[in-house]
C-alpha cells in the first residue's frame, strides 16, 4: 500500500510538473505569436495601383507594369520593412522608425551602418514608386496652361512648357546606369527644377526638395517594350502623365514652404 501511495503521489507531481511545463510552453507560443503579429501590424503594405495593369497601354505595357509593381516594388518594400523592424527593436533607433519613411530618409546619418543601405535603397525605392504610379493615368490628363499655378512655375523656370519637356527629356535620357529624373519644387529658391538621382535615391533625402513628378529610368521600367531605346520610353511617358496630380503636389509644396516662413 505504501508503494502504491508513493506511486500515486509521484504521478500527481509529474502531472502537475507537466501541466506547469505546458503552461509555460503555451505562454512562450502566445508571446511569440503576439510579437509576430505586432511586427506584421507595423509593416507597410504594397499599395494597389490606381488603375489596371493594362491601363497605360500602348505606352507602357501590361507585363512590365505587373512585374514592376509585384516584383520590383515589392522587393523594395520587403527591404524597407526589414530595416524598420530592426530600427524599432533598438531603443536608440526606434524614434527613426516612427518618423515616417520620407523623414527617416533625411536622417540616414543617424542610422547604424548595417541598416543605412537597406533603409536608403528600400525606403527610397518604396516612396519613389508610390509617387511614380500616382503620376500616371490612362491616356494622361491635360498639360498645365500658362494661366495655372504649375504652368506659371514651369514658364518662369524654363521659359515654356515645351522647354521644360525638352529639359526633362534630356536629363532622363542621360541618367547613367540606373536612376530617376524628377521635376521638384525647391523651397529655398521657391522655384521648380529638373534634377536626377542615382539608384533609388529620392529628392526627399535632401531637405527642402519636394518631388512633383518622377520617371523611373531603370531598365526594368521599360526594357520589355523598348529594349535599349530609353528616349522612346521617355517620349511615351508624356502620354500618361497625370498633370492634375502633379499640380496638386505643386500647390501643396508651395503652401508648405509658405508655412515654414
How would you summarize this macromolecular structure in one to three sentences?
By secondary structure, this protein is mainly alpha-helical. It contains 10 helices and 3 strands, in the order αααααααβββααα.
Write up this protein.
The protein is globular. By secondary structure, the protein is mainly alpha-helical. A three-stranded antiparallel sheet has the order 2-1-3. Helix 2 (62-88) runs antiparallel to helix 5 and helix 6 crosses helix 7. Mean pLDDT is 89; it is low at 23-41. The chain is 57% helix and 9% strand. It contains ten helices and three strands. Strand 1 and strand 2 form a beta hairpin.
**Gap from first CA to last CA:** 92 Å
Q: How many distinct helices? A: 10
- From the spread of the alpha carbons, the general shape counts as globular
Q: Which secondary-structure class do the elements indicate?
A: mainly alpha
What pattern of helices and strands is seen along the backbone? HHHHHHHEEEHHH
Extended strand count: 3
Specify Rg, calculated over alpha carbons. 26 Å
Largest beta sheet: strand ordering: 2-1-3
- Largest sheet data: 3 strands, antiparallel
Q: What portion of residues is helical? A: 55-70%
Rounded mean pLDDT score: 89
Q: Which runs of at least 5 residues are low in confidence (pLDDT < 50)?
A: 23-41
Query: β content, as a range?
Result: 5-15%
Amino acid at each position: 500500500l505504501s508503494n502504491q501511495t508513493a506511486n500515486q503521489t509521484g504521478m500527481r507531481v509529474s502531472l502537475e510538473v507537466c501541466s506547469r511545463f505546458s503552461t509555460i510552453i503555451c505562454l512562450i507560443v502566445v508571446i511569440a505569436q503576439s510579437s509576430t503579429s505586432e511586427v506584421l501590424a507595423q509593416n507597410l503594405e504594397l499599395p494597389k495601383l490606381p488603375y489596371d495593369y493594362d491601363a497605360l497601354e500602348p505606352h507602357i505595357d501590361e507585363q512590365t507594369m505587373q512585374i514592376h509593381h509585384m516584383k520590383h516594388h515589392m522587393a523594395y518594400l520587403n527591404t524597407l520593412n526589414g530595416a524598420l523592424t530592426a530600427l524599432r527593436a533598438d531603443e536608440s533607433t526606434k524614434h527613426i522608425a516612427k518618423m515616417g519613411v520620407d523623414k527617416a530618409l533625411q536622417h540616414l546619418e543617424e542610422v547604424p551602418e548595417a541598416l543605412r543601405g537597406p533603409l536608403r535603397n528600400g525606403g527610397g525605392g518604396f516612396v519613389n514608386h508610390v509617387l511614380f504610379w500616382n503620376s500616371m493615368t490612362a491616356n494622361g490628363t491635360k498639360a498645365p496652361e500658362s494661366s495655372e499655378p504649375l504652368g506659371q512655375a514651369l514658364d518662369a523656370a524654363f521659359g515654356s512648357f515645351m522647354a521644360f519637356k525638352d529639359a526633362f527629356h534630356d536629363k532622363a535620357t542621360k541618367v547613367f546606369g540606373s536612376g530617376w529624373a524628377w521635376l521638384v519644387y525647391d523651397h529655398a529658391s521657391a522655384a521648380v527644377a529638373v534634377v536626377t538621382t542615382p539608384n533609388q535615391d529620392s529628392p526627399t533625402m535632401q531637405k527642402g526638395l519636394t518631388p512633383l513628378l518622377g520617371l523611373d529610368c531603370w531598365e526594368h521600367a521599360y526594357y520589355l517594350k523598348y529594349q535599349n531605346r530609353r528616349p522612346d520610353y521617355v517620349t511615351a511617358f508624356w502620354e500618361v502623365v497625370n498633370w492634375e496630380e502633379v499640380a496638386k503636389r505643386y500647390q501643396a509644396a508651395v503652401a508648405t514652404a509658405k508655412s515654414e516662413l
